[in-house]
Amino acid sequence: MVGTLLAVVVSLSLIALFVQDRWLFIVFIIAWVGLCTYRMSDPRHQYLWHVAGFATVIICLDAAADPVNAFDTAVLRTQETGLGILVYGLIAVLLWPSNSRGFRCLGGQAGGGSASAVPGLP
């Protein structure tokens, strides 16, 4: 999410600064993506810079044809990323829990059944 927020700030700044001069706009997008690519060599924050680079390109090139809606495009991109994180988190917690304590017995009894839903558990 931090990479997307960084991309939104950079994208809106580039669009605001270079809305009339397309060559400088493209040059600064290339410079930003080059910086993001360089920063991806650090394994600690590699994904942040990856997302910042490609999200900037998505927002800038989508908004370049219609700069009036650049803010809407940036907000929608941020909402899509936030919704994706939320849905993935809910799916991971509800459908694929990391433990199986709630699924110990098949008989519907909370602690009395002899059959186990998870193989290898008593």
What does this structure look like?
This protein has 122 residues and is mostly helical. It has one domain. The chain contains four helices and no strands. Helix 1 packs parallel to helix 3 (46-64) and helix 3 (46-64) crosses helix 4. The protein is flat, with a radius of gyration of 23 Å. The mean pLDDT is 79.
**How much is the average pLDDT?**
79
Strand content: under 5%
Number of beta strands: 0
Rg, rounded, reads: 23 Å
Uncertain regions: pLDDT < 50 for 5+ in a row?
none
Terminal CA distance reads 42 Å
Which structural category fits the helices and strands? mainly alpha
Secondary structure tally, helices: 4
> Number of folding domains?
1
Largest sheet: none
Shape: flat
Helix content: 55-70%
N-to-C SSE string, H for helix and E for strand: HHHH
Short description:
By secondary structure, this protein is mostly helical. The protein has four helices and no strands. It has helices spanning 2-17, 22-39, 46-64, 70-94.
List keywords for this structure.
single chain, 122 residues, mainly alpha
Mind sketching the topology for me?
Elements: H1 2-17, H2 22-39, H3 46-64, H4 70-94
Helix pairs in contact: 1-3, 1-4, 2-3, 3-4
